[in-house]
Amino acid sequence: MKKFLYKLKLLFLRVLCYEKPLRVAFTKYLSLKFSSFRPHYETLIYETSKNAIKLGFKEIDVIELGVAGGNGIKSILKYKRKIEKILNIKINIIGFDTGTGLPNSHLKQDLPYFWKHGDYRNNNLKDLEKEDNSIKIYEGNISSTIDKYILENKSKIGLIFFDLDLYSSTKLFLDKIEELSQNKLLLPRVFCYFDDLFVADYTLNDINGEPLAIEEFNAQSKNIKLGKTFDHITDFKFPLAKGQIYTLHDFENEDYNKYIGIYSPNSLSSKNNEKFRSLIDD
């Protein structure tokens, strides 16, 4: 009983001192309780689709790195079906996973005290393709499966969900970004959601994990950069995701300077004048 009361006291203090509105914590709880409730996935896919349409593209790829049990793919499928109808765009779902769970690693940057070899194993990855013909799963080491994807695909990548957990795995994919760019498979700006920029025990920081892989990528890459989106009080578009969104800027992309602002003739807003701005469309 004493242990329970002590834990209850800690929980009460944490809730009482939570610096953001409690509705944020409640929404996060819902996303943990219900695996298919991912409002950050929905809004990211929606905003990505709008940007693609403004650039003149009617088909895009949405990638999930680290499929595991498939809940992320199923969430993307649920949201993409709605968005395709609303925006008249085709969204392909591409998943990458080893199929054997997390690889064995002794690199300190991979936090082996936190991640365990074999975690998130899925022996039935290909079953996800039966959910919808827009789903394609690449199973195996990402350093080789990404080459297969490059050979087979022509659609532009608009959005990448990073859920590879480890520094080394994240770095393997980021090292292939330049090749994706050279093969003209990227939108000029690609939203990137990094699931593991924060873990609850506070041992993940800028010297390990995904943050270190991002830092090294930016240091090595000249014409492609990952920029972190600022978390600002007036930003309302990305619930549960603001601090985990980066934008991949492909500076040499032929469409990088193409104007897609709210006053563009291609604006999705119902009215295009300086006195009106649609918060829904633009």
What does this structure look like?
- The protein is of the alpha/beta class and 282 residues long.
- Strand 1 (59-65), helix 4 and strand 2 (90-97) form a beta-alpha-beta unit.
- The protein has helices at residues 2-16, 22-33, 39-54, 71-87, 142-152, 167-174, 177-182, 209-220; strands at 59-65, 90-97, 135-139, 156-162, 186-194, 224-228, 245-250.
- A 7-stranded mixed β-sheet has the order 3-2-1-4-5-7-6, with helices on both faces.
- Helix content is 34%, strand content 17%.
- Helix 3 (39-54) packs across helix 4 and helix 6 runs parallel beside helix 8 (209-220).
- The protein folds into 2 domains: 1-29, no CATH class; 34-250, Rossmann fold (3-Layer(aba) Sandwich), CATH 3.40.50.150.
- The chain has 8 helices and 7 strands; from the N terminus they run H-H-H-E-H-E-E-H-E-H-H-E-H-E-E.
